Write the structure tokens for this entry.
Amino acid sequence: MFKPIRGCLEVPQAFEPRLPHYPSTTDTAPTSDISKTTSRLPPTTMPASRTRAAPARTAATQAPEEHAGPVLHFNEPLTWRAGKAIPVADLTRRLKSLFSEIKAMDQEDVSPPSDDPESPPSTLRISLVPVAKELAHPNLLGHKDRGVRAWTACCVVEMFRLCAPDAPYNASQLKEIFTLVVGTVIPALADPSNAYNTQHLYVLTSLTSVKSIVLLTDILDANDLILRLFVTCFDVLSGSSRLDTGEELSKNVEYHMTGMLVTLVDECAGLPTKVVDIILAQFLRADPKVVTSGSAKGKKNEAVEERQQTLSLKQLPPAYNMAKTICNSCPDKLARSISQYFSAVIMETSESYGSRASKKKSRPHASSDVDEDDDLALHGPSGEDLREIHKAHRLLRELWRSTPTVLQNIVPQLETELSAENVQLRILGTETVGDFVSGIGAAGPPPPSVLDPSAYPSHSVVPPSTDSANYNFLTTPFSPHAFYSMHASAYHNFLNRRNDRSALIRAVWATNVGRILMTSAGGVGLDPDEETKLLKWFAEMLVDGDDRVRLAAVQAVAKFSFKDLVGKLGADGGVATNLSVLGNLADRIKDKKHQIRVEAMELLGRIWGVASGAIAEGHERISELLGPIPSKILACVYVNDLEINALVDRVVFESLLPLGYPPVKSKGTVKDSQTNGNGAHDIAAAAALDVDKIRTERILLLVRDLEPKAKTVFFAIQSRQASAAKYLDAFIMRCEQWNGGVADRETKDVKEAQQNLKKLIEFLSKALPESAKAADNLWKFAKTHDRRAYQLVRFCLAAGSDYKKVYKALREFTKRLEEAPASTAISLDALIPLLYRSSVLVYNRSHVPAIMEFARTDEKNFGATAHEVLKEISTHNPEVFRAHVQELCKGLEAQAPTAESANDPGAVDTLKACAGFATKFPAEVPKDRKFLHAMVNYAVRGIPPKAAKHAVSVIMAAADRKEMFAKDILHKCTTDLQYGANGFLSKLAALSQLMLLASKELEEEADGVINIAIEHVLLRANAPSSAKDDDAEETEVEWQEEPDSDLQAKIWALKILVNRLRSSSDDDSVKETAKPVYKLLNKLIAKDGQLSKKSGDAIPKAHKARLRLLAAQLFLKLCATHKVFDDLLTPADFNVLATVLQDPNLKVRVTFVNSIKKGLGQNRLPRRFYTPIFLLAFEPLKDVKESTATWLRVRSQAFQKAKDTAMESMFARLLSLLAHHPDFSSDQEDLQDFIYYILFYLKAVATEENLPLIYHVAQRVKAVRDGVDPPQSENLYILSDLAQAVMRRFEDERGWSMQAWPGKLRMPAALFAPLPSHEVAQQIADKQYVPEDLIDKLESLVSQSLKTKKRRFGEGGEHRATKKVKPANGSGHGALSTKNVLGSKTPKTPRARKGRRVREGGISSAAPSSERRRSGRARGKTSYAERDDSEDDAEMEAAGGYAEEKDDHMDDEDAAELSEASDMGTPTAKPKPNGKAKAAAIKESRKNKDEVVAVPSDDSDGDLSDPPDTEDET
């Protein structure tokens, strides 16, 4: 066991150092292992002449052999007399031999010297002392050979280890030894390639592990050596003393060097001041303004090293890390030294300031705050003093981040600074304490987040990725402790600075409190109450009486990221909330100081530009907080200030609608600002984007959310564009005429041109701020006579220029002015506002097609806004439309198909835009014969078939003689029509559109068209399949993204039938006409897309899936067209239609549910179509289910805000739908499935307020009988009891308190009928229809469902149990069943379905219904894009007159009949046996009847039906 050097801490007894073996050397070069002995070297004889000391040492080593103790066997001399030097090779060999021997010795064998004669020193120590003395000889310590010095140092540190705790050296010898270590060994460690680097590292390791470095403190006047040691160590780690080898230092060097210095600091009685300076200087490596401490001698004005110039660090620099470890290891000792250092700096500055201030006392001056602030330069500290004190405070910031324990005595001094009379000291104190709280170090705050309003996707939707490569430790805010809790007094004093009399202090305070909020107190977090107070006071800084404070507060807000703006500053309200941070910021856009207005308005513009993405996505919180920003900005125009108007123009086109949005990369693509490195995916995604549509969406979003006054301003700004363009074009023309003022002679024309130009410049400059300066810049522009600039301006003004052309022209124009020579430099402040006001930037031809598309489809609820914008364009800027439509029409004429050539398939998009425009503005469409003839050719021969459809729409909207053109097209389409011939599909598409738009003109020929659709297309047998075997059927595709010709023909034929109905205006006659069409559509749905038994076997699966979907969508269009069509869809047929949402084909389900949501969202469909959506409770595709649930919650919240109980009363319809579900059974295991339907509804709709109403609806279902199929009334009662029990458990799980619903509710007459008598009603009410065992399971089932546990892999997959399949109303079409794994038992064997072959495998197979319901249709990795059916959607939207209809359609007569029957108590029909097996046993009613919160079913008047609810009254 070794003994530590005197003065060091004792090492635990169990610790036995095992020093590593190091390379040894031969001659002057080291070998690979220092631990090797010299046995390999050749024998060497002793020199002929020996020193006098040699015999004595030999005797000394031989005498102790009598005691049989270990001795040193090395007996060769290491020193020599002058002129008799030992050769270097021989000397090196001896030193290596000595080192090898003493390295193997144990410290325990060397006993320390003692005064007790009975305890003599050990023989080993006696033999070691002479050799140790020789090692300290100047001949060795000062030898010129590096190897000799290195091996000597290794031997000396081994002597330190063996002779501990008393080293066998006197003070002068120790000084020489440590001079060698500090001056040679330690600096050499900077070069890892040094030949003796291993020996140097061994010396360092020994000094650290044995702690022999403490011997340095025994030397008199050792301060210089200690200082040199610290300087050398930090230089080695910082790299300033490293050679240009490029090799990195070993981590062992940093580790052992740090341990050595920590030991030395801990053992020093008093650390030299300069050493403290050196340690503190390392923390300023984090300060980009200071390389190192100015107090360190010889370190001033050094060039900044390369590693320090790039302060983007993922980890601490080694020198910084070593200083940090030293401070954290010796906090008490360094705390005193640092406190003295800081006090000295403050004292020097205060004395310097006091001496100068006393000389100024006699000078009278005002005592106001402003005078005090303005007089600081004369009375404050000198520049040198300020630099020192600023450096000291930056040092304190870094010390707080790294080693806060050494600042225990500093914080009270900082608190004193906060109340100092000197303003500069108060500023420093405020900044420093604020940065303490924020965790900001000497490197300053992190770089501000960039709010890029032109980024796409928006940062509010896709936050910018945080690249770990850009992580910078030095600028990342970090506070090791909560300053406000550790130093409450100083923090309270800091908070009081918000009321400081000096505006400079308040401005600094505003900046710092912004940082505190932004960094969440350095990552520690703020108490909610504390954060609320800071937000309140920060908001007050935005309305401070001094403009410097307000400006500082605005600039502090600009440092926040978008996430922090919403999450932190938005906590106390948005821009529309009075006295909130964002609200006060919005008020600053009308500030009396121009700079504040500019900062605030530009910031708000950038914020909204980033938020626009989330607002467009429907993010309610962001919309609430930041949505009113454009209205606030545009409302500033009412101030009628030229500077504000110019600023509004700039913010609109640089932030709200930035010119570069979205970032244009190439034609048809955008540069994704959120690229994540997946290059192929990003390119493919970008290629699918329409930049013009994206920009148009931004414009419509801006207009949609504007308040009326702001919207008036926006439209006024755009309406002035045409007139402003005329004036600017006239200015360009006058500039050309004036020719830059250069003419051969003063002619009358030149003078006239100059006068005209002068008038125009005066007129234009009057509308700009600083009119004189603007006029001067306009004259400069005219004198430069830049013809290219003239042309660029004309590009911007031309109504025929597309947006890309305008944007490029603006960018080039700006660049030309910026790069102009200084002699002809022109300020952009005058010309850019004029260009913004005159260029076609909003009402641009590139935006018109997208605006018309939004107007037609109402995508993202932009329909009304798009119509409004179209109206403004047509009213104030008709040239944009005229130029656009004319060009579209000419292009269509040129591409029109003929008998010999086909049209370009891309023409369908152009035709679509033209048709949409012609529908809204038919007068603007050309009516010449050539154009209409081209449209007829499109209608007959256009490809794809949709081109024919759009061509018919254009003709019927624009032609004056519609009947003539309609009959002409009909004749050409029906004459010699052959199935599969060229143009067959186009003719069917044209006929389909004619049936919709020209039904009156073609009333006599309609039957012939219908006959073509049925006989020639729908009833035509498909081509027989070439393969009928099972393998071919299994490999058959189940969905076609691009339907084949046979399928397209059937699609257009079905549209012909439906469009004829939609165009009919006679309600009486249409009912008879609609019956066969409804029968056909119902058959398609019920028979799985099979049209006839003849061709059923040959219909491909993909055809069946598409036809099922089309039939369901056509029902939606009919129901959206007129109330009479909705009435024709009976409840039984509606139940079958609802099962399409559980179709085995994923694409069918997703497309149909999206169609329903779209129709309901536009208020086109009756409200009863909300009911089928709840069948998605077992949707296996997670994204579809979650998005639908979210949509239902949003719709429910909207109804609740409007005080509309539509979603609550919809529960009765849902129970009726479930009662007729093909999978319904009274079996207990099957009933568990329906629990999840009920829970899916409750999670989407139920709240604590409306749950009593839903519960009341469930009770009312038990007070009526089934009006669709009376024998199945018991199904309703089972579901009623089940729903009530589930709601009670749901109430308990949510912790709600449900009260009885006080009102009454009338049930839909089409679904429910009154009970025959009061006695029957009482019997039903008293009977419990749900098995008691299932009631007992509800608690676990409901709890488990509400936990939203993530489904593990395999659950809901293909291998789950199947369930029996039942036919739907005897039609043979089965819907998806409802089985769930929760609580399920051993799977039952599925029963075969009657009348239908069971298909297995695939998402569209007709597997057992349970498998389709739960997992058979699951394809987690398959994604289908929704089929583009925008034309059909447009037809749905065009079918007006039914937006306000409700879902029940129960007239007063029906309601009265139902109510009257209930009053009389007479039966309406005798229930028939339903033929189904009943439950084995049904237990009696629950005993605790008082648990049920119910309205008595038999009121005093005996009326079993409630009064009409709001829905039916409407």
In short: Residues 1248 and 1295 are 9 Å apart (CA to CA). The chain is about 55% helix and 0% strand. The mean pLDDT is 75. The two ends are 98 Å apart (CA to CA).
